[in-house]
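Researcher: Quick one. two chains, 572 residues in total.
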Amino acid sequence: MTHASASPGLPTSPPQNGPPIVSIRDLQKVFPVPGGQTVALQDANLSIQRGEFISLIGPSGCGKTTLLRLMADLEQPTAGELLIAGRTADQARRERQYGYVFQAPALMEWRTVLKNVLLPLDVMNVPGDRLGRAREMLKLVGLEKFERNYPWQLSGGMQQRVSIARALAFDPPLLFMDEPFGALDEITREHLNLELLRLWRETGKTVIFVTHSIPEAVFLSTRVVVMTARPGRIEGIVEIDLPHPRSDDTREDPRFFTHATEIRELLKKGHA
Amino acid sequence: MLEPGPAVTATRPPWLAWLAGLGPMLIVALIAAALYWSLMLAANLGPAARTLASGAELDCRTALACASQLRNPVVPAPAQLAQGFARLSTPVTSPLALPYNVGVTAGETVLGLVLATVTGLGLALLLVASRSFERATLPWLVASQTVPVVAIAPMLAVLLGQYGVQGFLPKAIIAAYIAFFPIAIGMSRGLRSADPLHLDLMRTYHASGAQTFGLLRFPVSLPYLFTALKVSVTAALVGSIVAEISTISFSGLGKMLAENSRASDTVALWVIMGYGALLGVTLVALVNALERWVTPWSRR
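Model:
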């Protein structure tokens, strides 16, 4: 396992050419419910290149979390094809191709901050200096001073940063994030958005990010996948041509508003 | 870039905190002592009047004065309790005095609790591992707890005696018999209490069943274990005392209770009960200390 170098001088991490890291064709997920079934996801088609930052956006019930859980092999599709780095979702999970960040930090309250980041390394029996690697990750999210603290001693935003450090600890090429900042206040969220973009540039990961915030999706992404509900489906994909590295000024860029409007129109279309 | 860290809480020195923690308990003790005195007088006035009327040779003239000087009072006066305490507690190392016998009962209780923990953990593992095992055994486990200890203790002692198990061990086994149940039930609940999110997380790591157990299910169940242990340790204490009473015993609090009960020495019975309560409180405090040591992450 190689660790991506964290050199700050890296360029803007444009999407790379080559085979897609995620390839989805006619993917469908149907949940049985009493007296029928719910189509959580219908005929989804999506191809994601290495190094992209993809946001899945839509109202609740649009299948964005289901799509992410299908990619992570936490749910099984009822139809269609899904390839992660050229493998089935099950193989990709076994080969630890992705790190997953949940909506809640999901830290283990009986482990210190450092031991939480250490958890995947211990489970996977990663060779080498695990402790050093875990400390490096904590430094990456700016929490190296808190390694001995227990999770409850940290704020919600700090806990979520630990959870991101944990997901990155074993250096997976993919990072799946399910509304990771949904429970945080606006100020903390904007701050963590900047931090996340820095991490993305420094590590060169492919990020797939579920959100229900339009500004967040526009600010972070290279492409935004707009989804609508009943049945859950992909309504359209919006290319975000805002320059990298992005900063608070990006939010003032006229193109920022254009893209936000574009997404809003697509979401409305799904409602009609 | 850092968000504000956790607030630094003002800390008192530990001994002061400990003393302050005792405050409410001492107030209750004070109220109990005040009530005790009037209760004692009320309970003893009748017998005292009757004793006076019978013309017995006494050092007191009025029923009120005699109430605190009866030979075998239902509720002894504090001075009588103090004398009884001194009489029964010395010589400290004597096998006939209370300290030695408290030690015997404590030993039986602790050994019983250890046996109960091993049994309870094993049962909890089986209960969680297999629904059919749960369906087949749980009703029997419940049934086992409805049999009074007094009934089962002598038979168990006779049965164990046939295999040469005598003295200390049968009492510990009887204590374990009633103490394993809360542990088995508590742990089987605890082992099922892992957060679904954490289970998903372990799945994304492609963790093995053993890893998920050791790193997730077991730590999650520890608070359940300690809650169960606190129930079990008091049950084990009652179990070993009852076992001492209802089997042939040569030492222990139960043996002393039985002896003094036959001799109608009520003062002694009260003193022995006091020692028993003290032992119970000490054992629960030890479980609490163990809990703090094993689960340092919990907020207290």
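The longest helix of chain B spans residues 14-53.
Researcher: Thanks, that's what I needed.
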